[in-house]
Amino acid sequence: MGGSAQIGVTGLAVMGRNLARNFARRGYTVAVHNRTESRTRDLLDEFGDEGTFIGARTPEEMVAALERPRRVMIMVKAGAPTDAVIEEFAPLLEPGDMIIDGGNAHFLDTRRRERALRDRGVHFVGTGISGGEEGALHGPSIMPGGSAESYAALGPMLEKIAAKADDGAPCVTHVGTDGAGHFVKMVHNGIEYADMQLIGEAYQLLRDVGGRSPAEIAEVFRSWNTGRLDSYLIEITAEVLAHVDAATGRPFVDVVLDQAEQKGTGRWTVQTALDLGVPVSGIAEAVFARSLSGHADLRAASRDLAGPTPRPLRGAEADAFADKVEQALYASKIVSYTQGFQEMAAGGAEYDWKLDLGAIASIWRAGCIIRAAFLDRIRAAYDARPDLPSLLSDSGFARETAAAQSDWRDVVATAVRQGVPTPGFAAALAYYDALRAPRLPAALTQAQRDFFGAHTYHRTDREGAYHTLWSEDSREVPA
Q1: From the candidates 114, 192, 201, 326, which is the catalytic residue?
Q2: Which of 112, 195, 259, 479 is the most buried (most CB within 10 A)?
Q3: Pair 272, 280: CB distance under 8 Å
Q4: What is the pLDDT of residues 274-286, one digit of tens each?
């Protein structure tokens, strides 16, 4: 006989604890378990009055407390710790039960785990969750994979705890089978990396070239957040830049060490894109920028390299430059999302997930870190044309990038002239120009490959593959 809890959560660090509280606040009975039992007691002591919890000292106790089909949510570190917890709980479950992995797992690990548990009759639901600890408690964006059967039993619960968009829609959808949920969460995080890098470059330009203080730049970002750049990341950027360090009285951003860390999902996004043959140069530059920032010794040894020193603008020139930076930021943001959605389309085709890109944009409208007003536009673009080749093929986004041309190029050129690094802006513009170029130097690259490695080439004027006998009489022969 099953128990009375509708869901169990094991792993009660901040994210797991807050998700358990979220379920309980929405009226569900939640069984809670942690390998370190004191965390379970702490949750019950501090938050037990928020809903109905059942404390479990062991996996056996937690499984016994769950109604059928049993829903066990794992909230532990990705990798070996997740495998260890699965091996603890899987033997205790019966066919039709499910294990939900809410951590930042690599989607290939999720595919492996789903196959293994499917053989036991247990559903494995790899679930991307975005929104941090606040989102986990008040409503995250949720990206579950797994079988349709598992979503039928779990989906209504996730819809209840998920963030709600302005139109009331819950920010959760059944993404696809096996690793689809964690794949989409990975790309979400890659886009997040690019978004943050572009915002950082805009800040640096406004400071070094625009001549503004952090507090003044905070006001610029606040104004941008009332328009088309309205987003969570723009909002918190203004808050960070306006913050003053209590200990020193200096702008807070000036006392933070300029070395950005990363947990791996951005890197996975780039590695996977390489495997899929999808160019995500904006995301890649964001990952590399974080990596470069951490090489303190290399940066210190390079301080005296030749190059210009930025010369700040003043008055009306500075105001006009800020407007140009807004154009460059928005156009580059469109390119970053274009690349991310291209990677999702390629991943869906590779793994037969049939990803609904419009639905994915829809569930990112609230709860998640990259929530932004223009995701409504992305949803509408893919809803209107599910086969849209890219976001840049949408008439609305195409008009906006066309309108940004002069300012976008001027900002990148100014950054180069003044020696301000803007790898994200520059990569976005280069990607855009490469897409629209009638001919690329890839023709020369392929000819070189044929010369040194007999890799063959295709011609523009007839079908077939060919090879030139370069070391003989330069005759062309069919490959």
Answers
A1: 192
A2: 195
A3: no
A4: 999 999 999 999 9
